[in-house]
């Protein structure tokens, strides 16, 4: 997906958010934003892909701000909140494979929810479970998993990874033949999960953890390491979570990829031709 | 006031808003925003003044969008709504000079209120009247007006001008010796009032209408015409409405100027050292 007209203001707003989280010093924030104004023309061009180009911009800002992980605290809060919510849901719901898939999509909303009451989040998630997926290719996904040897699972945000773990537990049980690889970013970028976050959440219990080889959102192959590229090639099925992975990997037109996401923003919804806010499990 | 760290995202968001209002064509909006990304580094620099530099950026976008007045409809709605609200308030309230001053400040919120129920706006305005001004130099203003021969009144937004008219009627009655000049922009820029808007609202009944000589928000003297500069120099008192006029004219440190505004955004509130949302009548 190439940048839409709304992506510029979103990039700038997120850059501002990063500068606010990185420092309380108003002068440093201003210096960072003065630099953003000079840099942004490089990253918002005709052919820019929002997740990739915004990541490159953010990494420049992190250097300017002298803070390599402005979202550190935000991510910790998301993780502990999601962990608790998933534990509670496991006790109160009967969770089958399809429910776990929907939870993995609904779990994507947790990055909005820092500071919320966990019980309110649980309520929101349960009401999302009652919604239908706007595009539902889950039968195709499950049939593909049935015939597959290798699954590559691309994670998205902190918090959400606890929902991914739940889904992967069900997948592992249902398709025991699968060799499962779970990928996360090679280092901190906005609130995306890193390999360290996956370890902390115990994802190694359900698959082999691998790095995408870069800190760029959306696992672009041109920034990946050799191991990731090899596994991406070997995979029979790829499950790609969230908007960032969609923005980058939709460019490949690769029918092994199933995108599981909530179309949070207008550009992604427009690209997919679905109403904003829709939950989707879609093969392009 | 020089740009604060939040001004970049605000400039971009307003540019996006202008492109949305200017055309329904997604491709044209995208083309405009691609240009904004290349241009913004020129207008968000160390010494930039938000109202001036954002105006210069917007005028470039208007050209790109081939629409010289994207806010035309928005302004018309604001004007007719404000006109009605002021007529109603005149019938229901006893309005003295001080109340009219507060209404002129409260009227600044009307640009948020397009599409709102007029009765809800009236309620909001009446509750604003019950708030104290956070900085209140109105006694100094009235005493200065008492001793003045020439008043220059700098308007701000459409809609709000109907509240300005009410305030100016009271000033004219209270200080009949005053020669009153009322300035507006020389052409369309965001939702600011133009000379045409002032005529439409009948402001010529309470003073002589003059152009600031440019379409730049905030009446910067370096963009003004000779007539405006002459009257600005002759004025004994200047009443400057809204954030834009504050951003530009606060640079002059000129104690003839009284700023009447609601500190809507964090940067203006920070600059004035007041809580965001405060209503002010202040001489610097």
UniProtKB/TrEMBL annotation, chains A, B:
Q: Which InterPro entries does the entry link to? A: ARMT-1-like_metal-bd_sf, ARMT1-like_metal-bd, DCN_phosphatase_I, PH1575-like
Q: Which Gene3D superfamilies match?
A: Uncharacterised protein PF01937, DUF89, domain 1, Uncharacterised protein PF01937, DUF89, domain 2, Uncharacterised protein PF01937, DUF89, domain 3
The residue ranges of the Damage-control phosphatase ARMT1-like metal-binding domain are: 4-280
Q: What is this protein called?
A: Damage-control phosphatase ARMT1-like metal-binding domain-containing protein
């Amino acid at each position: 997906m190439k940048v839409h007209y709304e992506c510029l203001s979103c990039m700038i707003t997120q850059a501002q958010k990063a500068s606010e989280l990185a420092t309380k010093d108003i002068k440093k924030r201003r210096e960072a934003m003065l630099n953003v104004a000079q840099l942004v023309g490089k990253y918002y061009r005709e052919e820019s892909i929002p997740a990739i180009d915004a990541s490159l911009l953010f990494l420049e800002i992190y250097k300017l701000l002298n803070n390599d992980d402005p979202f550190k605290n935000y991510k910790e809060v998301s993780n502990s909140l999601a962990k608790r919510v998933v534990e509670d849901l496991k006790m109160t719901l009967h969770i089958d494979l399809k429910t776990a898939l929907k939870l993995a999509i609904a779990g994507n909303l947790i990055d909005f929810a820092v500071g919320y009451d966990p019980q309110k989040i649980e309520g929101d998630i349960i009401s999302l479970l009652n919604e239908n997926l706007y595009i539902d290719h889950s039968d195709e996904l499950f049939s593909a998993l049935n015939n597959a040897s290798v699954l590559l699972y691309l994670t998205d945000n902190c918090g959400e990874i606890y929902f991914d773990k739940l889904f992967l537990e069900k997948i592992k049980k249902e398709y025991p033949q699968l060799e499962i690889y779970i990928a996360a970013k090679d280092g901190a970028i906005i609130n995306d999960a890193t390999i360290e976050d996956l370890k902390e959440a115990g994802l190694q219990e359900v698959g082999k953890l691998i790095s995408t080889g870069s800190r760029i959102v959306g696992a672009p192959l041109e920034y990946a390491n050799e191991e990731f590229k090899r596994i991406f090639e070997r995979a029979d099925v790829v499950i790609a979570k969230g908007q960032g992975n969609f923005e980058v990997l939709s460019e490949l037109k690769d029918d092994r990829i199933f995108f599981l996401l909530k179309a949070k923003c207008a550009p992604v919804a427009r690209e997919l031709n679905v109403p904003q806010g829709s939950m989707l499990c879609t093969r392009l």
